[in-house]
Amino acid sequence: MISDQTDAFVIRSVDFSETSKVVTLFSRDLGKLSVMAKGARRLKSSFEVALDLLSVCRICVRRKTTAELDLLTEAKLLERFDGLRRNLGALYAGYFIAEVLNGLTGRHDAHPVLYDSSVETLRRLGQGEDRQLTLIRFQLKLLKELGYAPILTHCSISGAEVGLSERMAYSVAAGGLVHPDEARNRSGCMTIQGATVQALRVYSGETEAAERLVPSQRGRDEMWRLLLATVATHLGRMPKMVAMLDAS
Amino acid sequence: MSLTPSVERLTEELTRLPGIGPKSAERITHYLMQARAEDALKLARAIEDVKTNVRLCRECFNLSEGTDICQVCQDARRDQSLLCVVEQPRDLMSLEKTGSFQGVYHVLHGRIAPLEGITPDKLTIGPLVDRVRRGTIKEVIMATNPTLEGDGTALYLSNVLADYDVNVTRLARGLASGTVLEFANREMLADALSGRQKF
Ligand SMILES: [Zn+2]
């Protein structure tokens, strides 16, 4: 039987026995994979250091549709984000990425664009880039690639066009902006600044302008709150790492 | 074939051990039934002894037999100003085997792994800070595993200990990152100890 080759990084690693662990990888071409890595905790194992959390490796794997675990036949380390080992905030942000990818992507469901973006995000975090902004942009990308992109041009309930104004209504449950006429009759909408909507549009557009954008602290906080609430809605719970991110 | 309740209970208990599947459990049960009573009971008594006599050292959380203070902490020749932080008692044992460390230890009983729900309060970090606060310790050596979580734990501890007048060092990178201490050979561990660096 032929093994498939792909790049992947480790999003969860649980010790199974003295010498083995169950490793969950987010791979570029094969989506989420769970494998039993026998001997992975031994120094001389063929998987060696490749299967450490958040390490990027090139793997060969045999996908099993009937069994719970796939079969890993090779793993070679490609990249590690050593900056994460020197900055607790960046490390916890990396854990956050692993947590939401594990929670929101399905087994064997490939998202190559999201994979590339995740690796780039980990690289940026390792280089000490602004943690909040980096995670804001990552979450936007994540939601977009999974089909949950925030609706920022029209009303997410009525479909009517919504013009920019100073204060705007947003519904996490409906997944986007809410026209003032709709917002009047419903509870649960949050109020955000027009500038925040603009910033979200720029970041969603992923153009050059996104690199130059410097949102206000209030804008950042609004984006963070909105995106996190959206991620939590799809995850069914608040990510565990949020409390640790707040504390670090 | 239907087994007696006692046999079934033994197999069931064995299955709960790490790395023991139903087939292995059955094999071990079969072996124990064939073995001489005194041999089999030796195993039972060994388990009983461990559970009744072995406790955690009040000072360093290493395993200790019969006393509140472990052998390392009781040893007056050891340097009380030099403290080595490890994840598990088995890591302490590995370092002891090198014979090149004369200080004392602190066993965390795990590593900070937030994704697995292991937050700093689940480890023996509070008592570690208390020990450092008492002022005898001049240097704390981080000997957590060089995995991402092990390094993250060392980083967290170094941040916490930054408030105290203590030198925080870590094992040299003689060990390949991403591996675990337990399976490193004696020479590598000894090198890593002697070549430790400032955090
Ligand atoms: Zn002790």
UniProtKB/TrEMBL annotation, chain A:
Described purpose of this protein according to its UniProt entry: Involved in DNA repair and RecF pathway recombination.
InterPro entries: ARFGAP/RecO (IPR037278), DNA_rep/recomb_RecO_N (IPR022572), NA-bd_OB-fold (IPR012340), RecO (IPR003717), RecO_C (IPR042242)
UniProt cross-references to Gene3D superfamilies, sorted A to Z: Nucleic acid-binding proteins, Recombination protein O, C-terminal domain
Keyword field: DNA damage, DNA recombination, DNA repair
One GO-annotated biological process of the protein: double-strand break repair
Family recorded in the similarity comment: Belongs to the RecO family.
GO cellular component, one term: bacterial nucleoid
Protein name: DNA repair protein RecO
Organism: Kolteria novifilia
The DNA replication/recombination mediator RecO N-terminal domain, residue ranges: 4-80
Automatic annotation (TrEMBL), chain B:
UniProt keyword Zinc, yes or no: yes
Gene Ontology biological process terms from the UniProt entry: DNA recombination; DNA repair
All residue ranges annotated as the Toprim domain in the record: 81-176
Keywords tagged on the record: DNA damage, DNA recombination, DNA repair, Metal-binding, Zinc, Zinc-finger
InterPro entries assigned: DNA_Rcmb_RecR, Hlx-hairpin-Hlx_DNA-bd_motif, Rcmb_RecR, Rcmb_RecR_Znf, TOPRIM_dom, TOPRIM_RecR
Matching CDD domains: TOPRIM_recR
GO molecular function: DNA binding; zinc ion binding
NCBIfam families referenced in this protein's UniProt entry, alphabetically: recR
Family (UniProt): Belongs to the RecR family.
Function per UniProt: May play a role in DNA repair. It seems to be involved in an RecBC-independent recombinational process of DNA repair. It may act with RecF and RecO.
Protein name, as recorded: Recombination protein RecR
Organism whose genome encodes this protein: Kolteria novifilia
